[in-house]
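Hello,

I think I submitted the FE2/S2 (inorganic) cluster job twice by accident. Can you confirm which output corresponds to this input? Input:
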Amino acid sequence: MESAAVKILYNKEVAPKYFKLGLSWKTPPIAPGHFVMLRVSDGLDPLLRRPFGIYNVLGSKGKGTFKGNGIELVYQVVGKGTQILANKAAGETINLLGPLGNGFPHPDGSKKIIMIAGGMGIVPLHMLAKSTEGAVLLYGARDKKVASMAKDFKDTKCKVKIATEDGSVGKKGLVTELLKTELKSDSVVYACGPVGMLKQASIISQAAGVKCYVSLERSMACGIGVCLGCAVKAKTHNEKENKNYRMVCSEGPVFDSEEIDWDAL
Ligand SMILES: Cc1cc2nc3c(=O)[nH]c(=O)nc-3n(C[C@H](O)[C@H](O)[C@H](O)COP(=O)(O)OP(=O)(O)OC[C@H]3O[C@@H](n4cnc5c(N)ncnc54)[C@H](O)[C@@H]3O)c2cc1C
Ligand code: FES
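Support: Only one job matched these inputs. Its output is below.
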């Protein structure tokens, strides 16, 4: 993990309030599911860095782990920090901390990979899709505009199935309904998105006896396991450290879904 002042290569709005941000950075090895924290302001407001998943490693042909000369992030403007980020231009520098987190366990090739994402949860799965063959992505989006984010998966060997809430593209309804039909006993599930979707994906997978890994999103202050701000309750007690919670930033963001106490989230 390093802290670096990196140059913005591009920061373009790809749909209203959705941006792709390219950062020049000679990266350490990055695995699918890693994330970075960006300091969007040099002032005191907002003081805390903001976490973002890594969508692409630029200039890398890696598989499994990637090393390149830049990274691409995709973000949605939801508040003050992301609005400040949206106003930044190519050539400006920004402070980055990363890569952070554990990343997805690399698939061993024996299972059929099902990725399930909701909204911005698609971001970390893009690099996982680039690392695998024969996987399927089930993508749940509010509408056609959000669903269009799945078009980048054309550069992977991954099949895409979409569910939209308004039925404007793909199947009308919840993406977890697609999971029920797609799941086989030899599947492994990788999920990222809203908590409700992750909980359902976990329940459906467990009922089918299938392993499900979830990438969680929590508000983060430090990103390195110090402030305890991103703790989630676990189902099992960690005897060694005598605790029944997990730090999403340093022990996650990817967990075996059976580890999480979903009712406490
Ligand atoms: C590990 C990790 C990876 C992430 N990856 C991405 C990514 O690739 N792209 C992306 O767009 N966002 C991602 N996020 C979420 C992103 O960090 C937040 O949207 C961002 O910090 C909001 O900052 P803000 O100052 O604009 O909003 P704030 O002013 O902090 O909040 C504005 C509003 O957005 C809500 N909000 C804040 N964080 C989240 C969140 N995580 N999920 C849903 N609502 C939230 C707040 O509750 C509030 O209502 C990730 C979060 C984590 C923890
Ligand atoms: S954000 Fe500080 S411990 Fe996770």
